[in-house]
Amino acid sequence: MTQEEIYARAIGQIQERRRNAERTQETRTVQIHSEIPETAELDRQLRSACLDIMHVLGRPDNQERIAAIERHCKEADAMLRQLLTANGYPADYLDLHYTCPLCDDTGFVNGKPCKCLKQEIGRIGAEALNAHSQLSLSQFSDFSLSYYADLPEKQFYAMQQVFTICQRYAAVFEPQTSGNLFLWGGTGLGKTHLSLAIANEVLQKGYSVIYDSAINLMHTLDQEQFRRTKESSDTLPSLLECDLLILDDFGTEFDTAFSRSMMYTIINSRVNARKPMIINTNLTPTEMKARYGDRIASRLSSSSQILPFYGEDIRMKMKIENS
Ligand SMILES: [Zn+2]
């Protein structure tokens, strides 16, 4: 799903909340009018007072008249609420109840996206990510240091540090100030788990995150280049623009001239624009140089915090424990 689609879907959700609030109010009004007929008359008075105010607004010396109508409205409104409570309903039963009191379910406050819209974008993004990566979104709370308990003390301590750094990275993530993380180590040591946990938390904050394996991404880009169709050519701009890009299994993509030049474009553009990335790989620095050349390897290592992962394949360990 593209960022535009996620945004459109989020706006649709917020608008649906607003319509729901209005529908609930309508249903309740019909119900209360038939149960407590006096409320229908009070509602009619309130509505006609609104019209009266509109009529006198443009006239000269209208203050007294407006004040009188407002007084009348207040009284009618108070009576309506009294009737509701006297009949066992909450006083605000007939009010509009929006899900988000900050923006009244419009999604915007003073022209800026509201917290609820950002959250919705994050939620839908997480869903899309989840569907795409075929992995249930990992949480920090599912990550257990006990899988590293057999390691020598120094390495266990290093893993403890890695865990803390990843949690902190997610907690204070800001697209303008966060740096790059380079998670380095063998397969099954928790790199994917921790980077997905970061993705999850950053998405919840309403930022855009793209998470994918290098092999998948290169396949998608290759297909798009091959087809050159309008609707399928938006992966590269999203990769360059998203708030956080997570490249899993960096170095496992097919080594072609196309994939090298794409990787170069992605990494170089993001480093230049100071846009955060998380790169997971088991390539050693020497292997990386050999494969992508000095320039990209040194750009990456100089702009990233390198986190080495130690241990045995924890996925194997988990499987054995759960069997
Ligand atoms: Zn809101």
Give your account of this protein's structure.
The model has no long low-confidence stretch (mean pLDDT 87). The two termini are 36 Å apart. The protein is elongated, with a radius of gyration of 29 Å. The longest helix has 33 residues, at 3-35. A five-stranded parallel beta sheet has the order 4-5-6-3-7, sandwiched between helices. It has helices spanning 3-35, 37-57, 63-86, 115-133, 153-171, 191-204, 214-227, 235-241, 257-272, 285-303, 314-322, and strands spanning 108-109, 112-113, 180-184, 209-213, 244-250, 277-281, 304-308. Helix content is 60%, strand content 10%. It has 323 residues and is an alpha/beta fold. Helix 2 packs antiparallel against helix 3 (63-86). It binds zinc ion.
Write out key terms for the chains shown.
single chain, 323 residues, alpha/beta, Rossmann fold, five-stranded parallel β-sheet, two-stranded antiparallel sheet, elongated, binds zinc ion
